[in-house]
Amino acid sequence: MSFSKLLSLLLLVNFIFIYQSHSSPDNNVTKAQSHIKPKKVHLSLYYESLCPYCRSFIVSQLVKVFNTDLLNIINLRLVPWGNAQYVKPNKTIICQHGEDECYLNTIHACAISIWPDPRKHFNFIYCIENQGLPIKDNQHSDGMEAVWKACSARSGMDQKLIKDCYDSGYGRKASFFNMKLDYATETDHLYPKHLYVPWVTVNNQPLYDKYEDFITYVCNAYKDKDLVRACLSNSLKVTEEKFSRSP
């Protein structure tokens, strides 16, 4: 091959390369954008451990997150404080359903802190709530400890870690300090304020009495809901409902 022909061939190849690299910029952008995953939806549950309505929601409704592919598109947070009140003068906590609830709220908080992955701590919390524990006001029963220990064994969670958490600064003392700074403060500063429990929010917007329809709101908030099987379920009508503004 002569030098002139070789030079011509190299120039042609170079031209084709430059043309392709600069052509169809919109297509290149589209391809790049297609690889960007939509932001996950924030789903939060503000609850208390012995509330019958919270129990029913966790056991019958929230569990659906783990039985579908919904967990892939949400950041799930459980906040075990509910309607508890922090009394500043003597640094005590009053729970709506008595001392047992304060105790279990702290056990829940310890599990969430030790095992942040919802797949882990939800199994434990679900097990406790599924027991249908009786409410005994103004007393702490030893039966509560037996229940959570049995649930920790079923969930493969180290009982000692939970007990150490409860007995340490993050446990009973955390009821006065850490939990106040974390869950109590967060619950107290909700806007709009929570009116009851369970109180469910999607991207920080309360669902009010529509909380059992949380899947609908989660799917509406997720941009690629067509790719989520839970959002395409025949039993789920995904509509463009606005968040309710009244309790």
From TrEMBL:
<dbReference type="InterPro" id="IPR004911">
    <property type="entry name" value="Interferon-induced_GILT"/>
</dbReference>
<keyword id="KW-0325">Glycoprotein</keyword>
<protein>
    <recommendedName>
        <fullName>Gamma-interferon-inducible lysosomal thiol reductase</fullName>
    </recommendedName>
</protein>
<comment type="similarity">
    <text>Belongs to the GILT family.</text>
</comment>
<keyword id="KW-0732">Signal</keyword>
<dbReference type="Pfam" id="PF03227">
    <property type="entry name" value="GILT"/>
</dbReference>
<feature type="signal peptide">
    <location>
        <begin position="1"/>
        <end position="23"/>
    </location>
</feature>
<dbReference type="GO" id="GO:0016671">
    <property type="term" value="F:oxidoreductase activity, acting on a sulfur group of donors, disulfide as acceptor"/>
</dbReference>
